[in-house]
Amino acid sequence: xxxxxxxxxLGMLIKLTLAVDHVxxxxxxxxxxxxxxxxxxxxxxxxxxxxxxMLLQPVFTQDSKNLVLFLQDTLSIDDFTRNSESYxxxxxFHNIQELLHSxxxxxxxxxxxxxxxxxxxDYLQESVDWKLTNLDEVEIxxxxxxxxxxxxxxxxxxxxxxxxxxxxAKAFTENDKIIGRLTTILQEQxxxxxxxxxxxxxxxxPTRPDxxxxxxxxxxxxxxxxxVPDPPLNVTNGTNTxxxxxxxxxxxxxxxxxxxxxxxxxxxxxxxxFTSSVCSATNxxxxxxxxxxxxxxxxxxxxxxxxxxxxxxxARNWFTLDSVEIVHDNQKTAKFNVSIISAPAEYSFxxxxxGTSSLYGAKLIPANNEAKSWDVYLSEFQIQGFNIKSNLFSxxxxxxxxxxxxxxxxxxxSIVLLWILTYGIHMIMQLTTNSRFDDPKGQSxxxxxxx
Length: 451
Known about the structure:
The chain crosses the membrane at residues 407-426. One of its GO terms (biological process) is regulation of cellular pH. Pfam families: Ac45-VOA1_TM, VAS1_LD. By secondary structure, the protein is α+β, with helices and mostly antiparallel strands. 26% of the residues lie in helices and 31% in strands. Strands 7, 8, 9, 10, 11, 12, 13, 14, 15, 16, 17, 18 and 19 form a 13-stranded mixed sheet that branches. A 6-stranded mixed sheet has the order 3-1-6-2-5-4. The longest helix has 25 residues, at 405-429. 32% of the residues are buried.
């Protein structure tokens, strides 16, 4: 509850800066007196890159330099106020609350410039000669730390699926368990460490900052304001729009170490060159060219290749996204084949999650060895490469089929029950009564064998 009140009060302080692109950052350490009460002076405004670097200086001055960086895809201060308390059987942020309270020193930054976070890992590597270790859930349980030199452990938490309140709470709970498991292992080994929990970009959680949040019941009863998503990327062939492309999160990971978030560059600041895109009635290529991203990743080109064909089976034209290509620094090309991304030519295509994971609704399948070193993640993916009218997406054909597992279970159960009912009615209709009855006072009834 203390963490909830803290974030609620901070939310009131920054109501004038909610429109700025920022994320919360939580820091805690087993070292004493890393951050004192003067740090609270930073609450209420956006922490710039330089201010964040100053606040991180105490981490670099410790004798035992071990740093854990927990990176999430999206996070907002409103995620804490909405999910800090138990949600049914889930307990989001339980371990994080305990760590903030029990650590020798901790610091809560409600709003940090997301540009500072995007370059945080590079800054940390430049500040100290760390031994960089990328961890996943399997590697955490087998972790062995060499304390002879500084260590930095980067844990990229699973993306938050914001389909509804339960799925969001479950995702936060799973990430919280990963954080608790790793910190417990380090503490059991007697290792002094500092930890940072943040995200690459803010989440879109609608809120009204002028309402004082006192409990979960009141919070969920507050009328949410409507958030307007960023406009889709619009590609023209000179006069008319020929390609529309949108994703609420568009990010790549190379070799499990280099993470690039292209969302803001593509849909907000529009620092992407798409002049190489090609449009025609049968073949369309969306080319997204980025430059000056990160050290070791100077240029990056991503191509979406689409075709429009007539299929005799359905007697109509369908458009398909055939492949996705990633060209790194004008060298090797990583090619992915695409599954189930197709729609009638007059429609657009939409899918909640698209990427290289087998758990996503539409999967990108590596077609060569170079593609195996890339991970692609797109959420709320929507694309249309043909028959665009009024610069708007047409009706969307979704990757989720109409007959979901729940619908199939209901249909099968209904059919079985209907068969049982039909069989019972049929048996009742076959029942007949005797045409003769015994008279106990008269002669006993005799039925000949011939009847």
